[in-house]
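Order emerges. As here.
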Amino acid sequence: MNSKNKKSIFREFLGYLLVAVIAALFAVLLRIFVIEPYIVPTPSMAPTLIVGDRVIVNKVAYKFNTIHRGDIIAFFSPLEEKYLVKRVVALPGEEVSMTGEGDIYINGEVLSEPYLPEDIYASYEDNSFIIKKDEYFVMGDNRNNSSDSRVFGPISSFRVFGKVFFIYGPISRIGRIH
């Protein structure tokens, strides 16, 4: 092999190495600042999310947009001191009330929850919360098996680290979350 061929092979190797380094750097930066994979550890969001679902959390979603009722968010639980995934039920400035008959009221009006299965029967204690500025009331979709704002109260917006928007595994469940 002559010197010219060695230089050509070396340049090609450096090109591949540069592409690999740039791809790795891009992946790390993407994970740190933009998206975060998360594995659902509990059945509290069933049937929307089930134990073992692998989801992607959009970490920049709420840097440019506001949190809406019905969003599924990832946040750090003040009580359990771990990351959880729950659905936003009430927004800042609202009053959320629950009845023993399984109804939720927001500012005196029954909350419509089309994302819940029709055959679900949730059991609540009669209770109400006033949601302060920069707080959110969150609940799991599996209402009878969820540790949520009914237990630890409304969560502060600074605890929210992103919006759960996509299931990437298992293969049979891949898709966008609505």
Summary: The mean pLDDT is 88. The chain is about 20% helix and 30% strand. The CA atoms of residues 4 and 46 lie 63 Å apart.
